[in-house]
TrEMBL record:
It is an enzyme of class 2 (transferase). Residues 296-355 form the AFP-like domain. It comes from the Eukaryota. This is N-acetylneuraminate-9-phosphate synthase. PROSITE patterns: AFP_LIKE. One of its GO terms (biological process) is carbohydrate derivative biosynthetic process. Gene3D superfamilies: Aldolase class I, Antifreeze-like/N-acetylneuraminic acid synthase C-terminal domain. One of its GO terms (molecular function) is N-acylneuraminate-9-phosphate synthase activity. It comes from Ladona fulva. Its EC number is 2.5.1.57. It catalyses: aldehydo-N-acetyl-D-mannosamine 6-phosphate + phosphoenolpyruvate + H2O = N-acetylneuraminate 9-phosphate + phosphate. Keywords: Transferase.
Length: 355
């Protein structure tokens, strides 16, 4: 049984707690701090539990050749991948400004450190938990360092095999004996085709890692699949947010626009409410319909007092007055009638002899 995990102050993940929803700004801010702040506001207004960014120290995340790689694509903000990434990267001061802004409107702020320098920065900023993006799920030294901060970890698993995930969980549990960990099923394809979401992997994770909370980081268009993940028990959901799905940038198409994000959060809460509990009982809200349409037992012919009832004497109908509930038919067969009952009249409890 997984132990409940406090991901942000006062906000727990676990059985009986609402699904923790992370609004991922990622790089949908287009390198503009004002847009970034407006997206933080959108996350807050939409009901996210937390807003998240990505943080890279470019020379630590990439080698020189990767930074020098030409990046001539529609979503490119520079000649080379390095130019593109530095256009989208906020400075440390800007990052702290974003955190201060998030706190000023009362929404927890965190980020995915994409290298050890960024991890140290986030740790020094006292973020409530560390998100490890899929690209670092097999970066075991980073995982160990993240675990050493003592902070909870939310780990995405896109692009990974089960064996790399086992090693990732081991790297964390070697440091945190009782892991404070959420593992997110994720497909790193933007947008993810529905048949590539593989939500059933969550079940595989649940069986393999009973001490870990399981969730979903979605990159599909719209949010139907993310709702299905909640129905399948995801305890954490992460989705990108944007002001415009058609904007320039690699992640906008798989992001949710403000109104859509607000609806998503509301729908997640509705799905959670609908999961209810596993006991099957007639519910108080059904009583009026039970009264109007519930079936009870009725005579199929004129029956006289003293008749020993057999199956052909009785039928279940919507009857007035309501008599013996249809489910009791077997216990009524073989009972003796104490009074005459006319064809199509209800058979009532006190019409029968109980010995
Ligand atoms: C794996 C990973 O980090 N994925 C992230 C999270 O989903 C993405 O936001 C990438 O940063 C983004 O798609 C990169 O786009 P470009 O290459 O155009 O900057
Ligand atoms: C890449 C990230 O996450 P995911 O793999 O869940 O998209 C991230 O958090 O930066």
């Amino acid at each position: 049984m997984t132990k409940n995990l406090e991901l942000c102050s006062g906000k727990y993940v676990g059985n009986g707690y609402p699904c923790f929803i992370i609004a991922e700004v990622g790089q949908n801010h287009q390198g503009n701090i004002d847009i970034a702040k407006m997206l933080i506001e959108t996350a807050k207004k939409g009901g996210a539990d937390c807003v998240k960014f990505q943080k890279s120290h470019l020379n630590s995340k990439f080698n020189a050749a990767a930074l020098a790689r030409k990046y001539h694509e529609t979503n490119s903000w520079g000649e080379t991948y390095g130019d593109h990434k530095s256009y989208l990267e906020f400075s440390v001061d800007q990052f702290i400004e974003l955190q201060t802004f998030a706190h000023s409107i009362n929404i927890p702020f965190t980020a995915s450190p994409m290298d050890e320098v960024s991890l140290e920065l986030l740790n020094s900023m006292d973020v409530p938990f560390i998100k490890i993006g899929s690209g670092d799920a097999n970066n075991f030294p980073l995982l160990r360092k993240a675990a050493e901060t003592g902070r909870p970890i939310v780990l995405s698993t896109g692009m990974q095999s089960m064996s790399s995930i086992r090693n990732a969980v081991s790297a964390i549990t070697e440091v945190q004996r009782r892991p404070r960990l959420c593992l997110l099923q994720c497909t790193s394809s933007y947008p993810t085709p529905p048949n590539q979401a593989h939500l059933r992997v969550m079940e595989t994770f649940r069986k393999e890692f009973p001490d870990v909370h399981i969730g979903y980081s979605g990159h599909e268009k719209g949010y139907a699949i993310s709702l299905a993940a909640v129905a399948l028990g995801a305890k954490v959901i992460e989705r990108h947010i944007t002001f415009d799905k058609t904007a320039k940038g690699s992640d906008h198409t798989c992001s949710l626009e403000p109104e859509e994000f607000t609806r998503f959060v509301k729908d997640v809460r509705e799905v959670e409410a609908a999961l209810g509990n596993p006991d099957k009982v007639p519910l108080p809200c059904e009583y009026p319909v039970i009264k109007k349409l519930g079936k009870t037992l009725v005579a199929t012919k004129d029956l006289s007092a003293g008749t020993i009832l057999n199956q052909s004497d009785i039928v279940a109908k919507v009857a007035e007055p309501q008599g013996i509930s249809a489910e009791n038919i077997l216990s009524v067969i073989g009972k003796k009638l104490l009074k005459d009952v006319k064809c199509d009249e209800s058979i009532l409890f006190h019409d029968l002899l109980y010995e």
